[in-house]
Amino acid sequence: MEAKIGKFFDSVSNFFTGGDQIPWCDFDIVAGCEREVAEAEKGSSDKLKGECIMRLSWALVHSKRAEDVQRGIAMLEASLSGSNTPLQVREKLYLLAVGYYRSGNYSKSRQLVERCLEIAPDWRQALTLKKALEDKITKDGVIGIGIAATAVGLVAGGIAAALSARKK
């Protein structure tokens, strides 16, 4: 019973704080990945360059800085057409979905997660992101309904006040 109560309070807390299980990345990790890519550009194999770019893309879309997330999205979109295997496509689509999730474009993120799940229906990372998206969309919808209801209440109150002042 205590576990259920704890889960309930955790879900309520996550609802109001917007918590999710998608990791964040600090600036120093992004900087390290950028150095790694710069080193790989100096003559490493294409495979190693690609791996370094994927690590940098991962770090960018998981960054706390909006400009890093946008850079990661741009890098991934540019490299998606050059993906050779379903695994590469899946990984890039997932990272793009994370980037769009972080930037607040939930509908685009949801489309990309669905494409990931078409490739790998049981992929836990994509399922976790899908759940985070659904929770975020639900939360935003509830908040939107609350704001709309408040606005309607204020307008109705204003009309009622104006009518009662008119009658006097």
From TrEMBL:
Q: Which residues cross the membrane?
A: 141-163
Known Gene3D superfamilies for this protein? Tetratricopeptide repeat domain
Q: Which CDD domains match?
A: Fis1
Which membrane topology term applies here? Single-pass membrane protein
A GO cellular component annotated for this chain's UniProt record is: peroxisomal membrane
One Pfam family recorded for the sequence: Fis1_TPR_N
Sorted alphabetically, the keyword list is: Membrane, Mitochondrion, Mitochondrion outer membrane, Peroxisome biogenesis, Transmembrane, Transmembrane helix
**Alphabetized InterPro entries for the sequence:** Fis1, Fis1_cytosol, Fis1_TPR_C, Fis1_TPR_N, TPR-like_helical_dom_sf
Checking SUPFAM superfamilies in the record gives: TPR-like (SSF48452)
Single Gene Ontology BP annotation: peroxisome fission
Record localization = Mitochondrion outer membrane; Peroxisome membrane
**What does the record's free text say on domains?**
The C-terminus is necessary for mitochondrial or peroxisomal targeting, while the N-terminus is necessary for mitochondrial or peroxisomal fission.
What is the similarity comment for this entry?
Belongs to the FIS1 family.
Q: What does this protein do?
A: Component of the peroxisomal and mitochondrial division machineries. Plays a role in promoting the fission of mitochondria and peroxisomes.
Q: What is this protein called?
A: Mitochondrial fission 1 protein
User: Which organism does this record belong to?
Assistant: Sesamum indicum (Oriental sesame)
The lineage is: Eukaryota, Viridiplantae, Streptophyta, Embryophyta, Tracheophyta
